[in-house]
């Protein structure tokens, strides 16, 4: 795949995840042995069967209605794409992929994420997603000790404006 094809396939994939919320179409953009790993909480899956269950039950269905993503930067390689994004949502739903077992707090979260996407045979081969879980927990009110060196939404604002 050339870089334009990788971008087009990735845009198609996230369109199915966040816009149409179509599990089968999302899976169709991925190779049979693809995997998703949300590194901070180790959620995701390996292979179409596990990913179908993951997307249907843990990711797409419980996505809060106001979820948005804002691209900050993109780095392209030979068979890989890395997006730095700001992921925003109000915690109105239990989110098993990001906050497993945590009931809705109705608090807003803005968190920088880094998504590493690998490609093979014209499709996604993997997604490894990284974020600062302590900042998420602080923003929803579960991490409240002020002596800890943990920040909330200001980390997303600083990514967008380093001044």
Question: Can you put this structure into words, describing what you see?
Answer:
The mean pLDDT is 97. This protein has a 6-stranded mixed sheet with strand order 2-1-6-5-4-3. β1 (30-38) and β2 (43-46) form a beta hairpin. The chain has helices at residues 3-19, 23-28, 47-59, 133-139, 154-160; strands at residues 30-38, 43-46, 68-76, 80-90, 108-120, 123-131. The protein has a single domain, classed as Nuclear Transport Factor 2, Chain: A, CATH 3.10.450. By secondary structure, the chain is an alpha+beta fold. The radius of gyration is 16 Å and the shape is globular.
Shape: globular
CATH architecture tag? Roll
The biggest beta sheet reads:
6 strands, mixed
Number of domains: 1
Q: Overall pLDDT, averaged? A: 97
What percentage of amino acids are in beta strands?
25-35%
Keywords:
163 residues; alpha+beta; Nuclear Transport Factor 2, Chain: A; 5 helices; 34% strand; globular
Could you give a quick summary of the protein structure above?
Helix content is 31%, strand content 34%. With 163 residues, the chain is an alpha+beta fold.
Map the helices and strands:
Elements: H1 3-19, H2 23-28, E1 30-38, E2 43-46, H3 47-59, E3 68-76, E4 80-90, E5 108-120, E6 123-131, H4 133-139, H5 154-160
Parallel strand pairs: 1-6
Antiparallel strand pairs: 1-2, 3-4, 4-5, 5-6
């Amino acid at each position: 795949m050339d870089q334009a094809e990788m971008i087009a396939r990735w845009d198609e994939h996230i369109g199915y995840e966040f816009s149409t919320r179509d599990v089968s179409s999302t899976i169709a953009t991925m190779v049979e042995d693809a995997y998703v790993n949300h590194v901070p909480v180790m959620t995701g899956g390996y292979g179409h069967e596990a990913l179908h269950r993951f997307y249907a039950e843990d990711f797409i269905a419980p996505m809060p209605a106001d979820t948005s993503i804002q691209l900050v930067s993109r780095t392209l390689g030979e068979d890989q794409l890395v997006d730095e994004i700001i992921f925003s949502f109000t915690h109105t739903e239990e989110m098993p992929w990001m906050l497993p077992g945590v009931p809705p707090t109705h608090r807003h979260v803005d968190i920088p994420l880094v998504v590493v996407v690998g490609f093979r045979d014209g499709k996604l081969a993997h997604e490894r997603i990284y974020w600062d879980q302590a900042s998420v927990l602080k923003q929803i009110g579960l991490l409240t000790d002020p002596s800890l060196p943990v920040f909330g939404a200001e980390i997303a604002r600083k990514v967008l404006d380093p001044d």
